[in-house]
Specification:
The chain is an alpha+beta fold and about 220 residues long. The chain is about 25% helix and about 35% strand. Strands 1, 2, 3, 4, 5, 6, 7, 8 and 9 form a 9-stranded antiparallel beta sheet that branches. It is globular. The relative contact order is 0.18.
Amino acid sequence: MGTFYAAVEVFDPEGPANMPDGADYGGEARFFVLTAEDLSEALATLANSISVNGLRLDRVLHAGAVEAFEDEILPFEIDIDGMAETAQGSGEICVSEAHPFEPDESDGVASGCYAVCIDAFDMEWADEDEGEYGGHYQLAVIKAETAAEALQQLVEDFEAEGIVIISLEGLVDAKAFPFDAYEFQFEEDDAVSEVLEQGGMIVSNAYAYPPEAPRKLDS
């Protein structure tokens, strides 16, 4: 079992009633820690829990193993060590306080398509490039009406290919995804339009990185 985190944005139907006078409710940021066999299982469990609790998953900003967590990805402070200890001891999902926010310019009519940057490990690729491949980065564009549907499609498609998701960044509506910030390419001239027309998921080219060097023990 591993311990994983996810920084997400959700929409709570009761959220508008909790906003200060004059403030509009756009959703709320929450941080989760839970144990699972791998990140895919953790994300599936989390998405189900969010739905069961009457919330709508809108974005997965970051997700990965707790040991790889970096403080600067969050605009608020959390006790990652304490949350991990609680999750490991109880076997339950540990969640931070809600941090509500107002709507921004990326909100509005959904495009029907989501995009995400993935850090993954392909066993077949590892066998072909033994000793040189440690994982790869790749973009994915997925036709889905909701973030939860996009997440499910991503997890199922990668599992079917035998690819392990190590971490992900920015599972958001494609119209809000910063494609220009990444140096990936798609075979299609317009991956978003192609996915909207054909359905399913399209992935970009991938950039592999070498295995981590073994840590030296202090003598």
